[in-house]
Amino acid sequence: MPKLEIKRNAELSRKEVSERLIAIGQAIARGPDVELTANDDSLEIVVADRLRWELEIEVDGDKTEIEIEISWHDDPAADADATSESRPAAPAKAARRGRARKTTTK
């Protein structure tokens, strides 16, 4: 299946960033069907029941970077493998590509 990747960069206020993070969290909490929007673009994805969470905080001089990565597999067997591996091991960077659909907000 072809790779789909959408990146958005913007300079936002702390409040705007917190609102976006909360919106993503609430969408994931509501159920497996999640619609993510950015500007006029919308992406509908199906989120698995078990997710891999990666948090990275990097401080380099006067620059601080926080990266949050959430990933999962569409294959339940792969989810079981990822869950058993995720306990003490370093997290792998698996990206979800299937069943994503880009739409334009009207």
UniProtKB/TrEMBL annotation:
InterPro entries named in the record: Amphi-Trp_dom (IPR027598)
Domain Amphi-Trp residues, every copy: 4-80
UniProt-annotated stretches for the region Disordered: 73-106
Lineage of source species: Bacteria, Bacillati, Actinomycetota, Actinomycetes, Mycobacteriales
Transmembrane segments: none
NCBIfam families: amphi-Trp
Pfam families: Amphi-Trp (PF20068)
Protein name: Amphi-Trp domain-containing protein
Biased composition, class Basic residues, residue ranges: 94-106
